[in-house]
TrEMBL record:
InterPro entries in the record: AB_hydrolase_1 (IPR000073), AB_hydrolase_fold (IPR029058), AB_hydrolase_sf (IPR050266)
Single GO cellular component term: membrane
Xref: SUPFAM superfamilies: alpha/beta-Hydrolases
Full protein name: Lactonase (Box pathway)
Residues in AB hydrolase-1 domain copies: 47-270
Residues in the signal sequence: none
Coiled-coil regions listed: none
Length: 282
């Protein structure tokens, strides 16, 4: 199938691009990013990490609204393979540790490219959703002193049957309905985005994936949020976080599915603001 043209991607005009040099783990990358709430001047930065099918534009206005409430600047970006960032070559499969590579290599390289120094990083909050929530946890574990705190929204800590079943259903919808064309509004190469995510999650070898043991390295404040009606994961995900990070705070939202920033933005924003501002950001 032919990929949608870049011109069809929703609202591309506000994006900027960072060039990341090649490393042992990846080739040269062009990363789409945007600053939000730039009027906050020298306020701390909130970095937003999107879900497995997300991008800069799929966040819509939620990062802006949250940053205004927190009095922070926001950095949103499309991970490699998503949005207008360098697409995943169609013959390349994400490895089982792809989220670790994103936390260990890509995010720090982007921060370097944007000249966000160590002083700024120590004031920085990392906020991630779904796969982005897992990457948030991994970054907080790998670089425990290079952030002020973290918020993981509907993160994956290990693989559950409900996750695999829902992801398999999403593949069927992608291949039989208009889901592909809808997602094409947010990705220059929609197949790169979809199959990169879908293939690894449906790979039988990925069933053994878990980052639970790595969470014990997290030192900074951590908020973990999950909806009771999430069809991609159960409360066992954030309960596992609490078991490995005793200082973590959990929020369990009623009438909320896998995307709290869309399903329950008001209680989510209230919970994040209460947690972040309590820790002296504002």
């Amino acid at each position: 199938m032919q990929n949608p043209a870049i011109g069809n991607v929703a609202d591309t005009t506000a994006s900027d691009f960072a060039e990341l040099p090649a490393t042992a783990s990846h080739g040269p990358l062009r990363i789409e990013y945007r600053w939000v709430n730039a009027a906050a001047g020298n306020a701390p930065i909130a970095v937003f990490l999107h879900e497995g099918l997300g991008s800069v534009t799929m966040w819509r206005d939620w990062p802006q609204a949250l940053c205004e409430r927190l009095g922070m600047r926001g950095l949103v970006y499309s991970r490699p393979g998503y949005g207008l960032s360098t697409p995943r070559p169609h013959d390349v499969k994400w490895p089982a540790d792809f989220m670790t590579a994103q936390a260990r290599d890509i995010l720090p390289a982007l921060l370097d490219a944007l000249c966000i120094d160590m002083r700024e990083r120590r004031r920085m909050w990392v906020i991630g959703h779904s796969d982005g929530g897992s990457i948030t946890l991994l970054y907080a574990a790998l670089y425990p002193e290079e952030l002020a705190g973290a918020v993981a929204i509907a993160p994956h800590v290990f693989v559950e049957d409900i996750s695999v079943e829902s992801i398999a259903q999403t593949r069927q919808l992608y291949e039989t309905t208009d889901l592909r064309s809808k997602l094409g509004r947010y990705h220059a190469d929609v197949d790169s985005a979809f199959y990169g995510w879908n293939d690894i999650w449906l790979n039988p070898a990925f069933r053994q994936w878990s980052i639970a043991g790595e969470l014990t390295s997290i030192r900074k404040p951590l908020l973990a949020v999950q909806g009771h009606d999430d069809n991609y994961g159960t409360m066992a995900q954030i309960d596992t976080i609490a078991a490995h990070v005793p200082h973590a705070q959990l929020v369990k939202l009623d009438a909320c599915g896998h995307s709290p920033h869309r399903d329950a933005p008001q209680p989510l924003n209230k919970a994040i603001a209460a947690f972040v501002l309590k820790d002296g950001v504002a």
